[in-house]
Amino acid sequence: MEKYICTICGYVYDPGQGDPENGIPAGTAFGDLPEEWVCPLCSAGKEMFELEG
């Protein structure tokens, strides 16, 4: 699965790890994240992420 990077702080969302601290299990693709999900480091919305690489 593809990784996405926050253009504000550089946090990388890795679907292989998910975001368990915020209720997102490993294996959750970026496109399947809830609309209300935000970057765990800077609280930027999903629209501030872009495909890494």
Counting H and I runs of at least 4 residues, what is the number of helices?
Answer: 0
The radius of gyration over CA amounts to 10 Å
Based on the structure, what is the oligomeric state of the protein chains?
Answer: single chain
Unreliable residue stretches = none
Q: Please, what is the average pLDDT?
A: 97
- Principal-axis shape: globular
Strand order of the largest sheet: 2-1-3
Q: What is the helix/strand order?
A: EEE
What's the helix and strand layout?
Elements: E1 4-6, E2 12-13, E3 49-51
Question: How would you explain this protein's 3D organization?
Answer:
By secondary structure, the protein is mainly beta. It contains no helices and 3 strands. It has strands at about 5, 10-15, 50. It has a 3-stranded antiparallel β-sheet with strand order 2-1-3, with no helix packed on it. A hairpin with a 5-residue loop joins strand 1 (about 5) and strand 2. The chain is globular, with a radius of gyration of 10 Å. It starts with a strand and ends with a strand. The mean pLDDT is about 95.
In short:
With 53 residues, the chain is mostly beta strands. The protein has no helices and three strands.
Tags for this model:
53 residues; globular; mainly beta; 3 strands; three-stranded antiparallel β-sheet; 0% helix
